[in-house]
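hey so u asked for the seq, here:
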Amino acid sequence: MNPLPQTPELLAVAARVVWFKRPTETLADRVHFLAHVMTYGTVQDLQALNGVVGPNEFRETLDNAPPGVFDARSWAYWNLKCGREPVPPLPVRRGVEPGRPRV
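ran it, structure tokens below
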């Protein structure tokens, strides 16, 4: 995936949903950014993506989702919205058993 354009609208969304990185850095990692929008984004955030991102990019984000970003509700919603049924398990970090706390 190519980086997203650095428009004022997308930079504002990036600053809001990925608060721990610079917006320009966030937009450079399309999958990471879209995963955060798909989990934490508002309707207005999604509207800012109209014409820039389509169903294929959302599917690609699900296929390459970074572990620990999606919550169960957002994961189920976006998988169903993208026609992925049954919904696959949430991505997990390698070397960590699901449900077991990290030490």
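The chain has a mean pLDDT of 92. The chain has one domain: 8-81.
lmk if thats what u needed
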